[in-house]
Inverse folding.
């Protein structure tokens, strides 16, 4: 089960900061520890930047998850309608980059999450979903 | 435009990051710092990130760039005050900040800079002009 998602635009560098702050406040109110908060906020920062720089902008969606079996978590979805990713396997490798970065963003976000899912189609766009449980 | 203040303390420059870093702010700091190193002939740079709650791969790269650029400009960089949750997250992200010297806090950072600048001054007869200045 999840509550009504919060949807934030990703058009500028300031939007990335706003997404970080929103993820932080959700994680905090769900009772995530400081380290857990930092991990999911950092993952969100990497993915939000990807959406902005590689996907030419898009949006972030934040959902609070409540499982009947008592698990509590956060699910974040980053979606763009940019050029898409040619080779997903390559894009997920540490150190691979088409931009000016370190190439750690996508795989870094995966390492900082409990669940990771990526969908991309060339010419259509990219959607990355991560979840982290408390 | 937003920019971070750079303070001059003797032959060192001090930057205290007190606000959330967005990418442009990080790039501006990189440019400003290299310019100030040249203008003030600073030998050391101290960057206090104790107020930073997130260091992602972009900010990590910026810190690495500053360290590398200042080294080329004959100055040494020490990054101080990293929060424990940030350190844990960075390592999990796969970013160990190679080439960046760190210290626990500003005092320890200044002591580290002082001792390595003094050592350098004593051991290199070719950099006589630096010895004269101290």
């Amino acid at each position: 089960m999840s509550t009504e998602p919060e949807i934030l635009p990703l058009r500028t560098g300031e939007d990335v900061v706003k997404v970080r702050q929103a993820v932080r406040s959700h994680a905090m109110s769900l009772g995530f520890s400081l380290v857990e908060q930092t991990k999911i906020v950092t993952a969100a920062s990497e993915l939000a930047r990807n959406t902005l720089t590689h996907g030419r902008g898009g949006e972030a969606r934040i959902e609070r998850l409540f499982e009947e079996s008592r698990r509590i978590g956060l699910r974040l979805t980053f979606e763009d309608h940019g050029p898409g990713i040619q080779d997903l396997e390559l894009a997920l490798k540490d150190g691979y980059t088409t931009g000016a970065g370190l190439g750690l963003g996508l795989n870094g976000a995966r390492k900082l999450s409990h669940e990771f899912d990526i969908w991309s189609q060339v010419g259509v766009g990219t959607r990355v979903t991560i979840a982290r449980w408390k | 435009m937003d920019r971070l203040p750079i303070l001059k303390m003797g032959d060192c420059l001090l930057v205290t990051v007190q606000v959330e870093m967005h990418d442009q702010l990080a790039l501006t700091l990189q440019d400003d710092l290299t310019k100030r190193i040249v203008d003030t002939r600073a030998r050391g740079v101290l960057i206090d990130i104790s107020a930073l709650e997130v260091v992602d791969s972009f900010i990590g790269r910026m810190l690495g760039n500053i360290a590398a650029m200042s080294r080329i400009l004959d100055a040494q960089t020490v990054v101080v005050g990293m929060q424990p949750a940030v350190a844990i997250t960075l390592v999990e992200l796969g970013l160990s900040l190679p080439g960046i010297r760190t210290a626990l806090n500003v005092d320890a950072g200044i002591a580290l800079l002082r001792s390595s600048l003094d050592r350098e001054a004593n051991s290199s007869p070719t950099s006589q002009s630096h010895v004269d200045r101290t």
Remarks:
- The domain at 6-128 of chain B is CATH 3.30.750.24 (Transcription Regulator spoIIAA).
- The helical segments of chain B are 23-40, 57-72, 84-93, 106-123, 128-133.
